[in-house]
Write a structure and sequence with these properties.
Mean pLDDT: 83
Radius of gyration: 24 Å
Shape: globular
Number of domains: 2
Structural class: mainly alpha
Number of helices: 22
Low-confidence stretches: 474-483
Strand content: under 5%
C-alpha cells in the first residue's frame, strides 16, 4: 500500500512491541486496576497504533481503509450479535425460555446445576458444532435456572462457556475445527483425534471441579425449595406452557446441524416466537415487535404483576435488538485497534523474532501458544488466530520432525477456546452479553477453555502426546533440533 508515494519505514522490534505493550498497559492498569471502561482504553490503544502507522509513512486514508476492511469482515458477527438480542427478547415474549427454565427448576438439583450446565451445552455444541448456538439456546435457559436456584451466575456462565466450546473444538461440524485442520495441512479426523490429548483431560478436570463445587460451599447457599416453588408458580401464572414452545430453539439447532445461513435462521426463529407469543400467551403483535426491538418487559402481561416475586422481573426483563448496541460499540473499538495494528506489520516483526529463539519441541509449542494468544488479543479475530500461527510455524514443525497435527491442536488450544475469555473479542463480547455475566467474572470457572493451554505446554516439554514424522530439511545441511 502506498502512502503519499513515500517509502514505508520498517519497524524495529522495540517499535513493533510498542502498540501491543501499550494495549496491555491500558487494559491491565485501566480496566483491571482502575475499573475503567474497555472502549476508551481500546481507542487509546488504537491511537498508539495509528501514531506508529503515521510515523512509518502511511496516510490517514490508509489507516481508515485498514480499519474499514477489518469491520467489513466482522459485519456478519455484528449482525449475529444484534439478532441474538432479538432472539432473547422474542423467546421471553413467547414463553420459550421461561418454559425451559421452569422444567430446569423442576428437574435439576441445585447441587448439580454446574455439572448439568456443562454436560448439556457440551452435548448441544458437539451435535451442532456451534458454541454460540449452544450458549444462545440452552445456555440462556440454564442461566435462568441458575438464577432461580440462587447459584452464582459467574460459575454457571463459566460452565456454559466451557461446555459450548468443548463442542466447538472437537465437533466435525464446527467451522473452527475444520479451519484449523485446513490451515495446518492435516485431515479433519486426524486433527480431532489428536485434540483429545488436551481436550479430554480438560473436560474431566472441569467436570470434577463442577461436581465438587456443587457439593461444597464453593457456590454459596443454594435456593430453598420454597423459593424455587415461588418462581415456578409465578411462571405458571404468567405463561401458558406448551411443548410447542420448544419449536424456536429446535429450529435454530436444526439449522445449525444442517449448516443453514445463521442470520435468516435466527430471524425466522424470532418470527416464530412472536407468533407463539400472540397465539399461546394472548399478547399482541405490537408487543411482540416491541420485545424484538426493545426487549421483553413483564408489564406486557395484562394481569397485575406488582405483587409477583422479585426474581421474575430480573429473569424476564431482557433482550431486544437495542440491548446489543453497547456490545457493538465495543466491537467497533476493538477492530479500530486491530485495523491500525495490522497495517503497521508489527505482529509480523514480533513473530519473526520469536522464530529465531526456537530450538526444542517445548519451545516451539510455547511459541505457538504465545503467538496464538497474541494474535487473538491483538486482532480480535478468531480465524486469524488460527491462520497466522499456522502459516508462520508450519515449516518449523516439519523441520523438527513434528506432525502438523501438533500445530493444529495447539492453535485450537490457545485460540478457539481462549477467544471467549478475552473481553474485547467477538466471542468474549457475545458470551458476556448473551449470558449476562462479564467475561472476567466467568473466566475462572471456564475450566475447559483455559486448562487445555497448560496440557499443551506440558505435552510439549515432556514429549507426551506429540506426533512425530521424519524431519524435513529446509536447506542442505540445515536441520532443526528435536527435543
Amino acid at each position: 500500500m502506498e502512502a503519499n508515494h513515500k517509502e514505508i519505514k520498517p519497524l524495529s522490534l522495540t517499535l513493533a512491541l510498542l502498540p501491543v505493550l501499550g494495549m496491555l498497559f491500558f487494559l491491565i492498569v485501566g480496566y483491571g486496576v482502575m475499573g475503567l471502561r474497555i472502549e476508551p482504553l481500546l481507542l487509546c490503544s488504537a491511537a498508539v497504533a495509528t501514531g506508529l502507522a503515521l510515523w512509518q509513512g502511511y496516510r490517514w486514508d490508509d489507516i481508515i481503509d485498514s480499519i474499514v476492511n477489518k469491520l467489513a469482515r466482522a459485519m456478519p458477527v455484528i449482525l449475529i450479535l444484534i439478532c441474538v438480542g432479538g432472539l432473547i427478547g422474542t423467546w421471553m415474549f413467547s414463553g420459550t425460555i421461561p418454559f425451559m427454565v421452569y422444567w430446569g427448576l423442576e428437574l435439576i438439583s441445585p447441587h448439580y446445576i454446574l455439572l448439568a450446565a456443562f454436560f448439556l451445552t457440551s452435548i448441544v455444541s458437539v451435535c451442532t458444532g456451534t458454541s454460540w448456538g449452544a450458549a444462545g439456546t440452552v445456555g440462556v435457559a440454564l442461566m435462568g435456572v441458575a438464577h432461580g436456584l440462587n447459584v452464582p451466575l459467574a460459575a454457571a456462565a463459566g460452565a456454559v462457556v466451557s461446555g459450548a466450546y468443548f463442542g466447538d473444538k472437537i465437533s466435525p461440524l464446527s467451522d473452527s475445527t475444520n479451519f484449523a485442520a485446513i490451515v495446518a495441512d492435516t485431515t479433519l479426523f486426524e486433527h480431532i483425534r489428536h485434540l483429545l490429548w488436551t481436550t479430554l483431560p480438560s473436560f474431566l478436570l472441569a467436570a470434577v471441579v463442577y461436581w465438587v463445587a456443587g457439593n461444597s460451599a464453593a457456590i454459596g447457599e443454594v435456593a430453598t425449595p420454597q423459593r424455587v416453588n415461588d418462581i415456578t408458580q409465578a411462571l405458571q401464572g404468567l405463561y401458558h406452557f406448551n411443548i410447542v414452545l420448544l419449536l424456536p430453539p429446535v429450529l435454530v439447532l436444526w439449522g445449525a446441524v444442517r449448516r443453514k445461513p445463521v442470520i435468516p435462521l435466527m430471524l425466522l426463529a424470532c418470527a416464530l416466537a412472536v407468533v407463539l407469543g400472540v397465539v399461546l400467551q394472548g399478547l399482541s403483535l405490537k408487543q411482540g415487535l416491541d420485545a424484538f426491538v426493545g426487549g421483553f418487559h413483564i408489564d406486557m402481561f395484562p394481569q397485575d404483576t406488582a405483587a409477583i416475586v422479585a426474581d421474575i422481573p430480573r429473569l424476564l426483563n431482557r433482550g431486544g435488538l437495542s440491548s446489543m448496541m453497547s456490545t457493538i460499540l465495543l466491537v467497533f473499538c476493538a477492530f479500530s485497534f486491530a485495523g491500525a495494528l495490522t497495517l503497521t506489520g508489527a505482529l509480523d516483526v514480533i513473530i519473526n523474532r520469536l522464530l529465531q529463539l526456537i530450538h526444542t519441541t517445548g519451545q516451539l509449542i510455547a511459541a505457538t501458544v504465545a503467538t496464538t494468544l497474541l494474535v487473538t488479543g491483538a486482532t480480535s479475530d478468531g480465524k486469524l488466530a488460527l491462520l497466522v500461527p499456522a502459516e508462520l510455524f508450519k515449516d518449523a514443525y516439519r523441520r523438527m520432525g513434528l506432525d502438523t497435527r501438533n500445530l493444529s491442536r495447539t492453535v485450537e488450544d490457545a485460540g478457539t477456546v481462549i477467544e471467549p475469555l478475552i473481553p474485547w473479542t467477538a466471542a468474549g463480547v457475545y458470551m458476556a452479553s448473551t449470558l449476562g455475566v462479564s467475561t472476567l467474572d466467568f473466566l475462572p470457572w471456564a475450566i475447559q477453555c483455559w486448562a487445555a493451554v497448560f496440557f499443551a505446554l506440558f505435552y510439549g516439554f515432556t514429549g507426551i502426546g506429540i506426533a512425530r514424522t521424519a524431519p524435513v530439511k529446509d536447506a542442505p545441511g540445515k536441520q532443526a533440533t528435536t527435543a
